[in-house]
Design brief:
39% of the residues lie in helices and 19% in strands. The chain has 614 residues and is α/β, with parallel strands linked by helices. It folds into 2 domains: 63-388, Rossmann fold; 492-613, Double Stranded RNA Binding Domain. The strands form 6 sheets. The chain has a 6-stranded mixed sheet with strand order 4-5-13-10-11-12, sandwiched between helices. Strands 8-7-6-9 form a 4-stranded parallel sheet, sandwiched between helices. Strands 2-1-3 form a 3-stranded antiparallel sheet. The radius of gyration is 29 Å and the shape is elongated. The N and C termini lie far apart (81 Å). The structure holds pyridoxal-5'-phosphate (PLP) and zinc ion (ZN). Zinc ion binds at residues 10, 12-13, 15, 26, 28-29, 31.
């Protein structure tokens, strides 16, 4: 059912494609397709006067969608996002006309909703029975929301490490989610095969998506009261959005609504430079990045479908492509939050990072009107945001604890920035004076002597394991010490342990603990070594201590690559009065970390019980 006001054309071989033959890729050469409008007809469909007066909503732009007249628009009232003048950051950067188009304000928290309207409406128009899409997370969330609204089952393929918020969204919208042990590129191949084999509608960065996403450009023009910005800066993953935004400006220009087209700047993280690498090296196609390495998961796309369109948009608009380091992205993300109260996910902070680089390249004038496209909301990926900050100290509900928080300026502790996490601080055990100095210098933190001693003790386990202490390690130890403010006296300390691990038998642990000055020993079996050690400690304390603690939660996090990994153990202990404490400990040794966490939790809980009992 080809409409007469547009047709599909391949951006590779240039052939015209029938909508009934393919809507994803050219079936001759495999390249991406584009919607080619008949501008004479589009002009009749689209009336500028109407656009000036009508409120900005996605349905207002219906004339610009390649949909049949009778097709129902599957809409969640996306679009109409605010264009915000970010004056504080603009002042710091000497760009007084710096704006941010906050696409995070779309229904599922990402610009992709603009595209999903057209895509899912088209799926209905073509009589689809189900939808499938591959995603790094946001596409999954958006497509499943619109599929739910349309009443279509939605299959979603995502890589295993997809940020939790995005996964939670897709699941909540009722998607049938499958986690793939591979990259986004693997998911894409599978989704295309699945669509062909089961006759599902293939959603994603395909031809109709851009036709919805181009409305971002229309809105920017309207938000600026029909003035055209000089520069628009867009993060690039598949390149679909950048190409769509350019197409939007181009359409308004061809229709005579605007007199010029802004320069379009594409930004990618250094760990996944595809379109930008092609732009810089003047390649025709983007080089393949087999293993994207960036915190910007939404743009960690090694094989972008719309590289050709994005490259054309950057070149034809006299724009530029640049890459930026992840460390700067985290800074920009923090700045947007702390200065402008805009919380975005890392990928959405990419355009802000670009400003300084563009200034150095003399690409920007001070008078330029610049629009940063902030693509997605920060709540989708809280882990990456939290990683950039120290864990807040946990204290008892008492004003004296608050006093300490203020006095020691615990809120002012600097985090080991992303770039510095691996910086090695000690290869050997430092003196107490040296440690004090280092903590002050690296974190601007001020610890009590007893806490510094604790940290020193913990550093010993790192050195004993042959692991140099990195800045991230020291931060964990400092955080541990601080969340420890509370308990002044330790009643229990593990002095020694022995582990027996034999094939085909449960591990057995023997343990010596000091409790209220007395030495206690016990042994126990467990399903694993950690379980055996904790069971042995509890068995040693049984009948000796009035504390009846329960281990209600136990989590292990391993901080990254290889043998040098630091293990963080988080335990939640609860007593019979339902007092509870969350204790955290770090060590290169999972047993040592588990013992330390248990010890800490136990002591705090004991102390708490005593105090409340009095
Ligand atoms: C999808 C996405 C991008 C990249 O857009 P493309 O169209 O793939 O280039 C950027 N930021 C966020 C938050 C996204 O979800
Ligand atoms: Zn082709």
């Amino acid at each position: 059912m080809q409409k007469d006001f547009y047709r599909l054309r391949c951006v590779g071989c240039g052939k015209t494609i029938q909508e009934s033959d393919a809507v994803a890729r050219c079936h001759f050469c495999g390249e991406a397709l584009r919607v080619e409008w008949d501008f004479f007809k589009l002009k009749k469909r689209a009336q500028k006067e109407f656009h000036k007066l009508a409120p900005t909503t996605s349905s207002k732009y219906r004339a610009f969608y390649p949909l049949a007249a009778k097709t129902k628009l599957v809409s969640l009232q996306e679009g109409d996002t605010p264009l915000i003048k970010i004056s504080k950051i603009g002042k710091i950067l000497h760009q007084p006309n710096l704006f941010l188009k906050n696409e995070a304000m779309n229904p599922t928290g990402v610009f992709k909703d603009r595209g999903s309207v057209v895509e899912i409406s088209k799926a209905l128009e073509l009589g689809a029975k189900a939808v499938v899409c591959a995603s790094t997370g946001n596409m999954a969330a958006s497509v499943s929301a619109y599929a739910a609204l349309a009443g279509l089952p939605c299959y979603v393929l995502i890589p295993e490490n997809t940020p939790l918020g995005k996964l939670a969204q897709a699941m909540s919208y009722g998607a049938r989610v499958l986690s793939i042990r591979g990259t986004y590129a693997d998911c894409c191949v599978l989704a295309e095969q699945m669509a062909a084999k089961y006759n599902f509608y293939l959603a994603g960065d395909y031809v109709f998506r851009g036709e919805g996403q181009k409305t971002c450009a229309f809105e920017i023009i309207e938000n600026l009261d029909w003035k055209v910005p000089d520069v628009v800066i867009v993060p690039v993953g598949c390149g679909t959005n950048l190409a769509a935004i350019y197409a939007g400006f181009l359409e308004f220009h061809k229709l005579g609504f605007i007199k010029k087209i802004p320069k379009i700047v594409g930004v990618q993280p250094a760990g996944c430079s595809t379109v930008v690498a092609a732009f810089t090296k003047k390649f025709k196609k983007a080089p393949f990045v087999a293993h994207p390495d960036t915190i910007c998961s939404a743009v960690g796309i090694g094989k972008p479908l719309d590289d050709l369109k994005a490259l054309e948009a950057i070149r034809d608009s006299k724009g530029i492509g640049i890459t930026v380091p992840d460390a700067e992205v985290i800074h920009a993300q923090k700045d947007l939050g702390a200065q402008e109260a805009i919380f975005v996910e890392p990928s959405a902070a990419l355009p802000l990072v670009a400003i300084k680089i563009l200034q150095k390249k003399k690409f920007l004038k001070a008078s330029d009107t610049i629009v940063l496209v902030a693509t997605g909301v920060g709540l989708k990926d809280p882990k990456s945001a939290l990683d950039a900050h120290p864990t807040p100290p946990a204290v008892e509900p008492e004003i004296s604890e608050i006093d300490r928080f203020i006095k020691y300026k615990l809120y002012a502790i600097r985090s080991a920035g992303f770039a510095e996490r691996k910086k090695i601080l000690f290869r050997q055990k430092p003196t107490l004076a040296k440690l004090t100095q280092t903590i002050k210098k690296e974190f601007s933190a001020n610890l009590k002597e007893s806490h510094r001693q604790e940290v020193l003790l913990a550093i010993e386990t790192f050195i004993a394991k042959g692991k140099p202490l990195t800045k991230a390690d020291l931060q964990s130890l400092v955080e541990e010490a601080l969340s420890d403010l509370t308990y002044e006296t330790r009643v229990m300390r593990v002095q020694d342990y022995e582990l027996k691990i034999q094939k085909k038998r449960q591990p057995r642990a023997k343990i010596t603990v000091e409790f209220l000055g007395k030495k206690l020993t016990a042994s126990a079996k467990g399903v694993g070594p950690v379980d055996a050690v904790i069971s042995a400690i509890r068995s040693a304390l049984k009948n000796k201590s009035q504390l009846k603690e329960e281990l209600v939660d136990f989590e292990v996090f391993v901080d990254a690559d290889g043998v040098d990994a630091t293990t963080e153990v988080k335990m939640k202990l609860e007593d019979s009065q339902k007092n509870s404490v969350v204790a955290i400990a770090n060590s290169p040794d999972i047993i040592a970390a588990s013992i330390a966490a248990f010890e800490k939790g136990y002591n705090i809980l004991y102390w708490k019980g005593q105090k409340i009992g009095k």
